[in-house]
Structure formats: structure tokens, C-alpha cells
Write a structure and sequence with these properties.
- By secondary structure, the chain is of the alpha+beta class.
- The chain is built from two helices and five strands; from the N terminus they run βαβαβββ.
- The longest helix is centred in the middle third of the chain and has 11 residues, at 30-40.
- The radius of gyration is 12 Å and the shape is globular.
- The protein starts with a strand and ends in a 6-residue tail after the last strand.
């Protein structure tokens, strides 16, 4: 299945592109998606503990099972001012 991943803020700069399409097995967990992304953009791994992952309009954890057509957002922690 294909999943579209969008990157935000400094994470987009580390990856070098605003979005990627990633091929994964059906119902793969977010953790597997992240490993695929880290293999393409190793600099992103240093931020693993702090990144937030969203599926659609909800934040999800690393166990969330992806569905075909999911739009995933990878972003740094939200900071207020």
C-alpha cells in the first residue's frame, strides 16, 4: 500500500523534501513507516523521541496500523509562545 507522508518545520529541512510516498505492507504500524523513512533520511532518526505523528487530523502512536491512502504528518513537538 502507499502512504503519503508530509514533513513539517525543521524536520522537512532534515528530510530535504516536503512529502514522500512510502510503500508498506497492508496494516503496517507507524513504527515500520518511521524505520523506512529513517533509512532514506538518517538525520531524522536523532529526533525520533520527540517527533509527533498524525494520521488525518489525529495524533497516533507507533502502534497505529496504517491504512491505504492514509496521509501521515511528521512534525516536531508543538511549542507555544
Amino acid at each position: 500500500m502507499k502512504v503519503r507522508v508530509r514533513f513539517y518545520s525543521q524536520l522537512r529541512d532534515l528530510v530535504g523534501v516536503p512529502e514522500l510516498d512510502v510503500d508498506l505492507p497492508e496494516k503496517a504500524p507507524v513504527a515500520e513507516l518511521l524505520e523506512k523513512i529513517y533509512s532514506k533520511a538518517p538525520a531524522l532518526r536523532a529526533h525520533d523521541r520527540n517527533i509527533l505523528v498524525g494520521a488525518g487530523v489525529e495524533f497516533v502512536d507507533r502502534k497505529y496500523r496504517l491504512k491505504s491512502g492514509d496521509e501521515i504528518s511528521i512534525m516536531p513537538p508543538v511549542q507555544g509562545g
